[in-house]
Design goal:
The protein has helices at 15-24, 30-37, 41-48, 56-65, 70-73, and strands spanning 4-6, 10-13, 74-77, 81-83. By secondary structure, it is α+β, with helices and mostly antiparallel strands.
Length: 89
């Protein structure tokens, strides 16, 4: 089947809320935030940029560390259409 298919909804971070809480605790850089959550800098930057979905462990760690509910830091993003057409050389 070629054309477009509906992708799956994704869980994404709410960057403004994440940064607001981190900044309130004095963690203003990606390095400081990564250290605070005990994750890699790459994980922080990729999750905040929406390049990857946060893992369950990341979500739990962020909510516990920032003392908030999951719905304050994360939201479900709508599914995106994916192009399934194959390129022909």
């Amino acid at each position: 089947m070629q054309g477009k298919t509906l992708g799956s909804p994704r869980l994404v971070v709410r960057p403004h809320q994440f940064h607001r809480r981190m900044h309130a605790l004095g963690h203003r850089t990606a390095t400081a935030q990564a250290e605070y959550l005990d994750v890699s800098i790459s994980t922080i930057t990729r999750v905040l940029a929406g390049e990857v979905q946060p893992s369950g462990a990341f979500i739990a760690r962020a909510c516990a560390a920032l003392d908030c509910e999951i719905t304050e830091l994360f939201e479900v993003a709508p599914a995106r259409d994916r192009d399934t057409t194959k390129a022909v050389a």
